[in-house]
């Protein structure tokens, strides 16, 4: 006979999903409990289940419990468990503490299994009650895809940028060509973020037929950002086909709107994705995505589910970095897991370019929000991989 799985939903609902997927062949019924304070609805949890499992498993959802009433919940749980003659298990990973304690006692008396997933790894611990003894088993959890994880929080996934929209010259595939351009920009450390400021100013003119035509002579306000040796970078971009270099002095270019969007910031989103995807650290990852819900739209520059089942989110900043960027990242991550997510703010800006007081304040705020803060010195591939492999701030 298949098993009854009880899930006590709370703030961290993706580990119970992974546990459910790992045990899908032996589960026959799913029972969900929530509290009035639970930020995640049962229907979001159910929606993420594979169709075959959703069709086969009988799901009872929406039962709301008082997170502070131990006696009422243990009575209700015992009543429901008595109606099931087969094996039973309860996942307490995301549960508030008092219902978790009640579930522990109810399963001890029923001789069932209590599951708890560790926040900082892919391990699920199973406490099996049998003959008045506890047998403890530890197992690896099954990772989930990025889209599946976001669906847990009622969020759809929509790309707001894709390198396949870009125009290049040469025989390289677009992803490889875009990666080489991003790597080249990172290598121009002497420009710092001046290239971004110049290029944004330079192309902030009306586009016609999907093409932006910009002339430095006509954009005098851009001159304070322009460096004479920047022409070598423009020659490189022209060689790759990202823009047409019509004249070098005064600088005059034509660039498509999509290519301009890549050069004014999206290149860092994609660079993070390419380096981290090839690092072997991630089971699944994506870049430049919107996570809309209703009228609200939030953007994620990079999101990945590690092979250990931990979710990483990064905000990529190609301009000047400040406290507002940390607040934006924190607000977005709070919608999809909060402190259960590993957070990064990755800046193209050089750490040394910030005033010591501003840098100290920024680092203090990052530490307060448990955000891993990286500057341009961490952008070379080997440095970036090391920083993501060994985050200073782990999930809670």
Give the SSE layout.
Layout: E1 3-8, H1 14-22, E2 27-34, H2 42-47, H3 51-56, E3 58-64, H4 70-82, E4 88-91, H5 97-110, E5 113-117, E6 123-130, E7 133-140, H6 146-152, E8 158-159, H7 174-187, H8 194-202, E9 207-208, E10 211-215, H9 231-240, E11 244-248, E12 251-256, H10 257-278, E13 282-290, E14 299-306, E15 311-317, H11 323-334, E16 342-347, H12 356-368, E17 371-374, H13 381-389
Parallel strand pairs: 1-2, 1-4, 2-3, 4-5, 15-16, 16-17
Antiparallel strand pairs: 5-6, 6-7, 8-13, 9-10, 10-12, 11-12, 13-14, 14-15
Task: Report on the architecture of this protein.
- The protein has 396 residues and is an alpha/beta fold.
- 36% of the residues lie in helices and 25% in strands.
- It has 13 helices and 17 strands.
- The strands form three sheets. Strands 3-2-1-4-5-6-7 form a seven-stranded mixed sheet, sandwiched between helices. A six-stranded mixed sheet has the order 8-13-14-15-16-17, with helices on both faces. Strands 9-10-12-11 form a four-stranded antiparallel sheet.
- Helix 4 (70-82) packs parallel to helix 5 (97-110), helix 7 packs across helix 10 (257-278) and helix 8 (194-202) packs antiparallel against helix 10 (257-278).
- The longest helix has 22 residues, at 257-278.
- The protein is elongated, with a radius of gyration of 25 Å.
């Amino acid at each position: 006979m298949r098993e009854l799985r009880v899930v006590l939903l709370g703030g961290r609902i993706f580990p119970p999903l992974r546990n459910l997927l790992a045990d899908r062949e032996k589960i026959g019924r799913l029972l969900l409990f929530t509290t009035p304070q639970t930020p995640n609805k049962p229907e979001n949890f159910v929606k993420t289940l594979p169709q075959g499992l959703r069709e086969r498993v009988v799901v009872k959802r929406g039962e709301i419990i008082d997170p502070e009433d131990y006696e009422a919940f243990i009575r209700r749980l015992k009543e429901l468990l008595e109606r099931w003659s087969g094996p039973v298990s309860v996942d307490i990973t995301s549960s508030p503490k008092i219902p978790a304690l009640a579930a522990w006692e109810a399963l001890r008396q029923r001789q069932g299994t209590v599951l708890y997933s560790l926040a900082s790894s892919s391990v699920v611990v199973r406490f099996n009650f049998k003959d008045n003894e506890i047998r403890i088993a530890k197992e690896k959890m099954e990772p989930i895809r990025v889209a599946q994880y976001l669906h847990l929080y009622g969020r759809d996934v929509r790309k707001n940028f894709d390198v396949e929209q870009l125009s290049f010259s040469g025989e390289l595939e677009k992803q490889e060509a875009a990666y080489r351009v991003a790597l080249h920009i990172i290598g121009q450390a002497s420009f710092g973020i001046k290239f971004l400021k110049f290029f944004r100013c330079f192309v902030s003119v009306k586009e016609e037929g999907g093409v932006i035509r910009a002339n430095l002579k006509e954009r005098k306000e851009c001159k304070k950002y322009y460096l004479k040796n920047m022409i070598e970078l423009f020659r490189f971009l022209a060689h790759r086909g990202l823009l047409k270099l019509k004249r070098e002095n005064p600088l005059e270019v034509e660039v498509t709107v999509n290519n301009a969007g890549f050069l004014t910031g999206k290149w860092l989103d994609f660079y993070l994705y390419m380096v981290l995807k090839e690092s072997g650290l991630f089971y699944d990852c994506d870049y430049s995505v919107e996570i809309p819900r209703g009228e609200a739209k939030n953007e994620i520059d990079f999101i990945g589910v590690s092979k250990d089942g931990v979710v990483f989110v990064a905000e990529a900043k190609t301009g000047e970095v400040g406290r507002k960027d940390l607040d934006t990242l924190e607000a977005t991550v709070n919608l999809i897991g909060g402190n259960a997510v590993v957070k990064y703010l990755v800046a193209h800006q050089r750490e040394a370019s910030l005033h010591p007081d501003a840098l100290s304040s920024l680092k203090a705020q990052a530490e307060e929000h448990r955000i891993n803060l990286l500057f341009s010195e961490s952008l070379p591939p080997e440095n970036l991989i090391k920083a993501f492999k060994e985050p200073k701030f782990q999930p809670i």
